[in-house]
Specification:
With about 170 residues, the chain is an alpha+beta fold. The chain folds into two domains: about 50 residues, no CATH class; about 100 residues, no CATH class. The chain is about 30% helix and about 25% strand. It is built from four helices and nine strands, in the order H-E-E-H-E-E-E-E-E-E-H-E-H. Strands 3, 4, 5, 6, 7, 8 and 9 form a seven-stranded mixed beta sheet that branches. Strands 1-2 form a two-stranded antiparallel sheet. Strand 5 and strand 6 form a beta hairpin. The relative contact order is 0.14. The N terminus is likely disordered.
Amino acid sequence: MRSSGWFPLITAIQRAWVGAFAQQRGGVVLRDGAVGRLIWVPSSPAVQHDLAQLQNDRVLPHRLLWCDPRPIPRLNRQEPVTLIVRDPGFHEPTDEDDCTTFWYFCQAHDRTYQHETCGEGSHLVALHCEEHGPESMWPQPLMLMFPAGFEPPLSEAQLGWLQAEWDAV
């Protein structure tokens, strides 16, 4: 069993060794976020292209919407609700943010959104932070269960990345 006191030292030694190896052989060192291991990648044009494509698959569109693709139940009077997951004008949350007060705001009706009480017609809803205003959100598990609701549609690689990030939490 590894002592927790040794782990930072071992990690630093591994990082130094892999970094020196990469400099000597030519390439880059990446940290695999899912398991935390360091990976050396050779710097050939084909590998760099694949690496750039992998990075693109982990980037979400600048503006991303989601609307539940399931049909609205017959007796439910709720109009369709589209959530703004990401928008270029919204605050992009970071780990350093210490926000505590949030609510949903319907941009289509220019008022706070509460289930079935916002107004007539379709809803365009954004997460609103007391400190930052409109804020981008991380796709929620329900959204990942029904990925057909994303606009623009996400690629299989993007959906796989999002699912892996949720599973890692």
